[in-house]
Amino acid sequence: MNVAGTKPTAAMPARLDAADLTIVGGAGHVGIPLVLAFAEAGYRVNVHDVNREALETLRSGRLPFIEYGGEELLLRALKRNRLVFTSSPADIVSTGPLIVTIGTPIDEFLNPVREVVQECIDGLLPYLADGQLLVLRSTVFPGTTDWLDGYLRRQNRDLKVAFCPERMVQGHGISELKETPQIISGTTPAAEQAAAKLFSAIAPELIVVKPREAEFAKLFSNAYRYIEFATSNQFYLIAKSAGLDYRRIYDAMRRNYPRARGIPTPGLTAGPCLMKDTMQLAAFAQNQFSLGNAAMLVNEGLVLHICDDLCRRYDLARMTVGLLGMAFKADIDDTRASLSYKFKKALASLAETVLTTDPLVTTDPELLALDEVIERSDLLILCAPHSAYRDLDLAGKPVVDVWGFLSKANVIA
Hints:
The structure is a single chain. The protein is an alpha/beta fold and 413 residues long. The protein has two domains: 16-212, NAD(P)-binding Rossmann-like Domain (Rossmann fold), CATH 3.40.50; 224-400, Rossmann fold, CATH 3.40.50.720. The longest helix is centred in the middle third of the chain and has 31 residues, at 211-241. The model is unreliable at 1-13 (pLDDT under 50). It starts with 20 loop residues before the first strand and ends in a 13-residue tail after the last strand. The protein is globular and about 65 Å long. It contains 13 helices and twelve strands. β4, α4 and β5 form a beta-alpha-beta unit. α1 crosses α3, α8 (211-241) packs across α10 (274-284) and α10 (274-284) crosses α11. The strands form three sheets. The protein has a six-stranded parallel sheet, with helices on both faces. It has a four-stranded parallel sheet with strand order 10-9-11-12, sandwiched between helices. Strands 7-8 form a two-stranded parallel ribbon.
């Protein structure tokens, strides 16, 4: 349903004034799955983004990055005239809900930067109408939703402010929106009800809480995952220091033992969310979140531990090292906050040459073909366990595989 509670008609042309809702940052990783979900539900969506190149890519029927299942929905939405593309705030329709996918990043001191949200809202505010629903979608520092409500009121504006966090796995937002309960919160009963009505069109279940509860639910979820991965990485390093093969220990712990089934494999834990959100919690706790701080040291330090170990075992200054996979996780093309690049930077001062490759990433001009990297390298490091690497012929080259993804042959760590 649209904000008025009537079902949008699929046949209307995608004029600017025909949009039922606007998604700011709609051409980004958080925005696109949401845009396509609402379009599939019958809404006419204003895809608003300052990235004009990404908007043109969507307009042409292509996705600017990997989102599994998204291209079919995009083509269908375009065919049904359910998408409007804008980049100027003046083009935002003030008669429907506005969903903002801008969150609070962290600065060089690992502190949250709430000014980013304020600057975004300040740019939009002259074009919004009182009574309009304004939904924050991305992770925000605890208290931001209530702060925004108060900030708007001090500007003599009366918008319905809600926080409805996304909880999707990168690249699988389309399927997860259909399966994952949606957390709903609003600063007033009217905002809460409007947000619930909006998301009931695409979510299988709604969970209604207070804004700060919703903010903590999102941060706690990501921090918990980050700590889980740090635990596995710490186990890996302890086993390695004991001269043991962690693969064998991992298999012994988990095989047919339900209580250990959820232990993740070790690996490079990175990306734009997990560490950032953990550090936001640490900032809120006045740096007394010892588990989160320890997890950051383990996960960020894994690369340096591996480099140090390789320096003890090899004469890296005479070797070419090849890095396999530069995305921050398997089977996506997103390199944001990827620890693969931390590897590249660390090895640049240790190895004679560092080569990089990735079958999915298209934004790095320094990437080489996989065959060339394997042929030229003396040593390989599996950074992202892409499916394309599963049966890889490494030509007998030694490989570091923290993930335990490749066959045991030639794996040295």
